[in-house]
Amino acid sequence: MTADLELGELVTGLEVGNVAHGGHFVARHEGRVIFVRHALTGELVDVRITELSKRFARADVVAVHRASPHRVVPPCPIAGRCGGCDFQHVEPAHARELKRQVVAELLGHLAGFDFTGEVAEVQPAPFGWRRRMRYHLDGSGRPGLLAHRSPEVVALPVEGCRIADVGIAVPPADAGRPDGQLLALATAEGPVFAGTGPTGRTVLEQVGERSYRVSLDGFWQAHADAPRVLVDAVVAGLAPRPGEVAFDLFCGVGLFAGALAAAGAQVWGVEGDRRAVGLARENVTGGNFVSGDVARRMAGLPEAADLVVLDPPRAGAGAAVLAAVAARQPRAIAYVACDPAALGRDLRIAAGLGYDPVSVRAYDLFPMTHHVECVAILERR
Ligand SMILES: C[S@@+](CC[C@H](N)C(=O)[O-])C[C@H]1O[C@@H](n2cnc3c(N)ncnc32)[C@H](O)[C@@H]1O
Fold it and tell me: With a 6 A CB cut-off, is 156 part of the ligand 1 pocket?
C-alpha cells in the first residue's frame, strides 16, 4: 500500500537499490516500494513522487546526497526534462552493465535462462546514433521533444538532439507543421524532414548490398547500425541453407526476409502494416508476403518451415503465435526482442512447446536510454 504517500510529495534520504526493468531503481520507504528515475544503485537521494498505484509509487530524483561513482553530469542540457533519454546521468559503460543486469534478472526469473553475456556496444555511440526522430513544436513554434509521459514539449537546445544523427539533430527553422509534429529521417539518400500522416512517400535504406524502400512514417530500426547488426545475428544463428523454407514474422518491409532470401531460402513474411507489405514485395522479389495479424495469418502459411524469425513489437509474440510456429517444427527460431520481459515470458512458453534457447545476445541499440535489444536463437529439443 502507498496510501499515505501523496502525488508531488518530497521523500528525503532514500537509499537506492538495484536497477529494475524500465530503467527505474528500486527504493523502499517505510516498507513501500518506490521506483526511482535518474538514480543509481548505492545512492542516497531525495525524490518527488510522480505516480501512485496500490502496489508501488514512482518518483524522480530531485537531490543527490551521496552520488554513485558511475554518475556523470548529463551531456545534454535538457536531460531530466526531455522524456527521451533516461540514462544521461550514467557513465555509458556502466549503462550497458545495468542493462546486462536487467536482461540477466528477467531471463533468469521468467525463463530460467542463465544469461552470461554482455550488452555489446554498437557504433555510433553514445551520440549520433538515432536515424528516426519525431519532433514536436512548442507554443512558440520551436521544435522540441516530449517530456516523460506528458504532452509538454521541451524545446531543443541550440546544438539539437545529441542522440540524433547529426544530419537531423537540428530541424530546419521553417519546420512548422499543422499538427505540430515533424518527422526527421537520416536515410541512404540524406536527411529528410516531413510532416506526419500517410503521404505515400518512401525513403531508401541500405543494409550492406541490399536496399529497402520504407514508408516515410513506417517502421525502420532506429539505430544507424541496427539493421546490419540484427541481420548478422539472425543469419549467423539460423545458418540458412539454399532451398529451406523460412518465415519472417512481423517482417516490416522485409529486413530479415531479404537476408534469408539472399542465402537461398524460400521466404514467407507476415506484417500488419499493409504499406510495409507492399514495399516488402518490392524489396524482396521472389518472397511471399501476407498482410494482417500474425496470429491470424499463420493459418495461410505453409504447414512446415525450416526457419522462423520473430521480431514482434514490445508486447512480444505471445502464446498463439508461438504455438503456430512450433506446429511447423522449424529446426531453429530467431527471436529479436526489444523488451527482455516479453522475451523472458515467450522463452518460457517456447520451452513448453519443445524449443530451448541455445544463445541469447544483447546489443546496446539505444544508448543513453534504458532500452536494450536481444536476439535469442532457439532450437528444437
Ligand atoms: C519491431 S518491428 C520489426 C519490423 C522488421 N522486422 C524490421 O526489423 O524492420 C515490428 C513490426 O510488427 C508489426 N506488427 C505489430 N503487431 C503486429 C501484428 N499483430 N501482426 C502483424 N504485424 C504486426 C509492426 O507494424 C512492425 O512493422
Answer: no
